Amino acid sequence: MQAHRLPARHGWYWLRDGFLLWQSAPGLCVSLGFSSLFALTLVGSIPYLGQPLVQFSLPVFVLLILNLIDLIARGKPLDAKKLARIGTVFQSRRDLVALITVGIIYLLANMLIIRFSAQIDGGIFRDIILKRRELDPLSMELPAFRAALLISLGLLMPILMACWFTPPLIGWWHHAPAKAMFFSLLACLRNWRAFSVYALASFSLGLLLPVFIAGVLEILIPGMGVLALLLWILAWLIPVVFASFHASIRDIFGLPENDCR
After folding, report:
1. Can you say whether the dihedral through the CA atoms of 183, 186, 192, 194 is positive or negative?
2. What is the pTM of this model?
3. Residue 133 per-residue DSSP state
4. 103 exposure class (CB count in 10 Å sphere: 0-12, 13-18, 19+)
5. Cα–Cα nearest to 86, from 70, 97, 102
6. Alpha-carbon span 51 to 130, nearest angstrom
């Protein structure tokens, strides 16, 4: 396997291709956005266990969504048989165990980073993340809190990169967790320029511009701005981001030649 190094402009191509894929099946993609948020909210609402469950099951969830996106991208007719097959995305129990292993590693890394941050600011950042206290202007002004925030983000970034591509690397290429995380980290590091363009374009078109429009709507019609922003996120942003994720996998790694996914 090889992780290709791509020019910075490919970050924009990923978002463009995600939009084109959304345009080819908008109804299915909108349903995907709503069902994704509903499922994550439902699991996350479980007392005490909700957030840990979301974190360590996230690779499994992402692979399920990617399989659906992949069917749309290949122009396959989505009959009941193919939709049912999406639920059996794992060719072996080994793949499922590998995905859950990556999820557990991600969860433990987050817990260690949060615990370490408490040594810097006395637990302010930890309590905000765990929703034990609200983020207030006074906390944001504290140098210790800012240091804890920046250091935590710096420590989390390589963990995110190592886990980013693991769902398809495990589910489609059947790599072991360590190998999948290595290639994921390598791919992200080799394509940091493309990811920077992708992040900037996604933030600008997906959130910054819609928030501005929603603010204007809220002034003109109270209550309409928030509703419009929520609908935009569910109906466009979430499915396009997943579709663009598929485009980035195709560009960096290619896609398996056999129909194993």
Report:
1. negative
2. 0.89
3. S
4. buried
5. 70
6. 9
Q: pLDDT tens, 166-192?
A: 999 999 999 999 999 999 999 999 999
65, two tokens = 């969504």
Look at phi and psi of residue 191 and say left if phi exceeds 0, alpha if psi is from -120 to 50, else beta: alpha
Separation of CA 204 from chain center: 17
Closest residue by Cα to residue 194 from 66, 16, 14, 19:
14
Summarize pLDDT for 35-74 with one digit per residue, the tens.
Answer: 877 888 888 888 888 888 888 889 988 998 898 898 888 8
Distance CA 69, CA 63 (A): 10
CA distance 90 to 180: 15
* Domain ranges across the chain: 10-253
How does pLDDT run across 100-127, given as a tens digit for each residue? 999 999 999 999 999 999 999 999 999 9
pLDDT value at residue 44:
82
Sign of CA dihedral 38, 209, 164, 243: positive
